[in-house]
Amino acid sequence: MCDNFTIPQKHQRVGVAGTDMILYVNGFPTSGPMAWAAPCALLKDNRPFAAAVNFAPREIEVASRSVRVAAHELGHALGFHSVHFVALHMISEVPNVRGLPKVSVISTPKTKAMARQYHNCPTLEGVELEDEGGPDTVRSHWKKRNMRDELMTANVGVGCTRH
């Protein structure tokens, strides 16, 4: 994904003064999703400091759906993706959930505490990750069954198509 952008070597080595993150945005036609995003350069602690976002021009419109898709993709640009979850040891496997041998959850202390509060369930082990869909969906989104229309589920909202 980042190959579609020319990120100056200087940005990759020393960054840009006064910034926490550099976001490269493009409007390039795609035959797939209406938008995508990915971190392109990481710090030593695996935190993204440069990311790319692409929006398919045919899909851009002034509507809440487009704003929601943009916000969702920024979440991915900031590192909401299975590669980063794994690198940062954020995923746990919880056995015997709904008859499944195991499910993947984000189980950091803050995520676990917020999930327990939100779902009013003091024994919840974390927030379940999606296990259906393609490789860009699985473990890179919240499980729609549990999190419904939360921003980082794989759908942009009720009645909306997949991003």
Automatic annotation (TrEMBL):
> Cofactor: bound how, per the entry note?
Binds 1 zinc ion per subunit.
Task: List GO terms (cellular component aspect).
Answer: cytoplasm; membrane
Family classification: Belongs to the peptidase M8 family.
What is this enzyme's catalytic activity, as reactions? Preference for hydrophobic residues at P1 and P1' and basic residues at P2' and P3'. A model nonapeptide is cleaved at -Ala-Tyr-|-Leu-Lys-Lys-
One Pfam family this sequence matches: Peptidase_M8
Q: Which cofactor does it need?
A: Zn(2+)
Record carries keyword Ubl conjugation: no
Q: Where does Zn(2+) bind?
A: 72, 76, 141
Return the EC number.
3.4.24.-
What are the subcellular locations of this protein? Membrane
Please state the protein's primary subcellular location.
membrane
Q: Has keyword Protease?
A: yes
Q: Name one GO molecular function term.
A: metalloendopeptidase activity
> Which one GO biological process term can you cite for this protein?
proteolysis
Name the UniProt key words of this record, in alphabetical order: Cell adhesion, Disulfide bond, Glycoprotein, Hydrolase, Membrane, Metal-binding, Metalloprotease, Protease, Signal, Zinc, Zymogen
Q: Which InterPro entries match?
A: Peptidase_M8 (IPR001577)
Q: What is this protein called?
A: Leishmanolysin-like peptidase
- What SUPFAM superfamilies does the entry give? Metalloproteases ('zincins'), catalytic domain
Any idea which residues are catalytic in this one? 73
Organism listed in the record: Trypanosoma cruzi marinkellei
Kindly give the PANTHER family that the UniProt entry links to this protein: LEISHMANOLYSIN-LIKE PEPTIDASE
